[in-house]
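Exercise 7. Given the components listed, write out the predicted structure of the assembled complex. Treat all entries as one system.
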Amino acid sequence: MTERVVIVGGGMAAVRLCEGLVGADVAVTVLADERHAPYNRILLSAVLEGTHSADALTLRSAAWFEEHGIELRLDTRVVEIDRTAREVELVDGERLGFDRLVLATGAIPTLPPIRGLVRRDGTLHPKVHPFRSLEDCRRLDASVTALLETPSPRAVVVGGGLLGLQVARALSVRGVLTEVVEGADHLLASQVGPAAGGVLARDLRRLGTEVYTGARAVRMTDDGVQLDNGATLPTDLVVLTAGGRPSTALARRAGLMVRRGVVVDSALASVTDDRIHALGDCAEHRRRTTGFVPPAWEQAEVLAQVLRGQEASYDGHRNVARLRATGLDVAVLGDAQTAAGEVVEVTNPITGSHRRLVVHGGRIVAAALVGDLSRVGLITQLYDRGTILGPDEPGQLLLPEAVDAPAALPDDAEVCACAGVTAGAIRACDSVAQCVDRTRATTGCGGCADVVRRLVGSAGVHRVPVG
Amino acid sequence: MRLTGRRTPEVSAWEEFPVNQGALCRKGWSAAGLYGSRERLTSPLVRDRATGEWSAVSWDEALDMVAAGIRAAQAERGPDGVAVFGGGGLTNEKAYSLGKLARAALGTSQIDYNGRWCMSSAASAGIRAFGLDRGLPFPLADVEETDVLVLVGSNLAETMPPAARHLDRLRERGGRVVVIDPRRTPTADRADLALQPVPGTDLALALGVLHLLVAAGAVDEDYLADRTTGWADVKESVAPWWPERVERTTGISAAEVRELAAMLAGSPRVMVLTARGAEQHSTGSDTVLAWINVALALGMVGTRGGGYGCLTGQGNGQGGREHGQKADQLPGYRRIDDPVARAHVAGVWGVDPESLPGPGRSAYELLEALGTDDGPSAMLVFGSNIVVSAPNATHVTQRLESLDLLVVCDFVMSETAAIADVVLPVTQWAEETGTMTNLEGRVVLRQKAITPPSGARSDLDVIAGLAVRLSSVPFATAPEEVFAELGRASAGGPADYSSITYDRIRDEGGVFWGGERLFGSSFAHPDGRARMYAVEHRGAAEQPCADYPLHLTTGRVLAQYQSGAQTRRVRALPDDGPFVELHPLVAGRIGVAHGEPVSISTRRGTMSAPARVVTTIRPDTVFVPFHWVGANRLTNDALDPASKMPEFKVCAARLSAVVVAG
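Answer.
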């Protein structure tokens, strides 16, 4: 009998799983709480910045789900899982049966403990914006557009992580004077060390964004955001990007084991109930939760195989976190702060770069590159593939690439590859015309024409009088 | 080029010739180097299997022997007991006659050719996207009129040097050139933007570029609505390919991906040309489709100075694939499983349509089947040096050696001829007349200039000589007569030559089939629209691992051509032998210096060659040229599902320094 698979959540992990289930003998229902067809959440800051049209975010349209026989129910909230009856209950009381349930509920933004953030009626202060969904992005975008009509608009971003920096840059590029408040001692504290964080803060200030680290926002007033050091940052907007936590309320209520996330095994099944799976931001595997797309997609690919009845297991991931913000260069591979190994580090405070490779057994096991992304593609490949490097390589990877210095061409150097003509033979000619006639240089691809013009008739120059 | 000189032929430039305006590279200048060469074969040779000794025999003896072998193979295994293997260097007339020999005289479906390893991915993609495959749907000189030229996996400055002049003229005009290649080649040195992706990831790069074009609102929605189908799916399929994901997959930084997309978005005319670097992959045809999607999304295909094209790799790569030496085709680029095409061609040949075989095996599948229980036990080879040019060559050579009869037509003792039972000496280019269809779809005439050595015969004579022994179907041998017959057979097909004559070619400096420029108002599908296909990045079939940690890619060098059977024998061309190109980082890792021998292994074979240490190659990739025996012992035989192209351009390899004793 065709198994009924119910997926709770319509985010990036869920859509990837659906793609993996196309053509499988399962009846899939997706219960998504947002009103939009699944979209690419990680590009929201680019939409805010104006470099990405929101239109380009849709990962799979409703039509795609229909075409592949997958039931997509948008704007649908699940309130209860009945494990005994194997049913989920929706907010309107409707109950849906399942053979397999997949929790892809993602994360919910944490509200920092700031007084006045939430008003008495439970709604957010009108100046305050969370930034997680397309809806949030649209609201913020509308506010920014309106604000840009007013003189010197200002914003405060609460949270100096990847998302915070992206949003801060986006607002700044749009023309809003933006400040960042981060409770930790440096920016991007969960990914990089203080030196790298310092480089980033300096970059941001250079780009016109003030940064307050080691400072907590404690109160929202009509004047602005008050920090724990007593200062008040006047602002028209506050954007909350101070992280999120796995959305686990459903799983918890259903009695599934939950620590930070829903605890799953290598088949991405709950350790409490193997008919219920979890993946993406809401799942916890080997005591790790993620919060990034690549591991969620790797999990989706594994889970698709599991649900198809194939052998597959998930044994952790390698993550690469990249900042998408104009003018800020950051790549973090693995756990650059905690990974064990030898550290090769190059810091250049003069140019504002900090790069760190953590090497274990010849392999790059983690890396942080800030302010200088040269060779990021190569370093990522070496990291992802676990290539064993020679002892000098990690250091060389962080040095500038050797440039072949233009040297004086020796007479036996081949200048025209098409006709096989050496520098000496060209020097021996008096003119380009004579050279073409004698040697056929320049008559093939023509690439040597400049060099030939430079060399003809120069034989004498190289003769050094003796005695 | 023209041939001059009294006693020994010489090549001279023919400046009025429209394709190259007289420009030649050293291979062209030295192309007469094999006239009067001692290595030239002038008598049919038969090899004694017991002793390995060759003996000269008369043409009649040789052809009788071959015919007897074919009869024996077919008596034992049926019509498909004999196979025919052709080449993309053969003239149109020969390619046509070879297909006719297989289908009408031998009745075998087992025919394919080395062009399967050359342009088949682009051909397959072109047919699917546009309904028609013509390498360039416009004259090559149109390149100079574009604003951004994107070369995906082409090193034309070394592989077709005269064409590189177009790049210079384009740039003088203010146009820009983008080169995508894991190596920074001499072509890339002329580029405004040179990107060096991980081998096998050109497809992901195309998806990433299209993603950014959509994001920037730079696609031509009107064009897409009017002239294509499938855009909605394609658009969705690129949504997950944001630049940082592309960076992780391709090894090209997100900033460079953005730079490329911005360049394309901001230019009125964009032209994308693919070559073997993009195509010789198990994902080659999808990769071409992905780049075609970019050209279509920009609204470029069919516009002057814009669009998509494929840079052909062999002398007659285009014509060679149009006239029936491909396993699934009949003359005129017709499908062999199309009843109308079968009836038409059978009518021209004077045979019963029912007697024509159906589609046969693709080139590599055919070679794999040789000598097996349900494969052919005899094979005729024309214009191909399989031992050097086939992927996984050690295995293929074993298959060739397992045949009861291997016949090779060549004019030198190539590596493949050397293991044949019968070698038939044939004429070379200036000794015979014939047409070729160049990369632009322009049919050109190569006329006989000198008398061949006595003892050598044209392939057309060889084919007719065998046909007369094995069937009653008539075969013409005069090239112009064969061409006229080819024209009749191709009439009404996608590549219709029926209105082309030798006189017209002479008068007009070559004749484009289908017209000079295609797709201006309509594509070749019945509804006139181009098809867009949503394709997914899969990557190379064999990925680096702990045992084989590097990517190996293969390609050409300037002074050599294909398997080198000719160029390695031309004295005027330097033959420094094969080499292994690697980055200083890898050289340091394995402890080898420039010029020292290095051993390279894959799951299929090993070879040794001097190290060439250069900073111009990706440090996770090594390069070996394929003109010598060795490179293809390493390459992977994974095939593209659509085109059956083997994955010549990437596999996993291991390097080590060769320790020299003493």
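Discussion: Chain A touches chain B through 54 residues (CB under 8 Å). Chain A has four domains: 3-107+245-307, 128-242, 329-397, 414-462.
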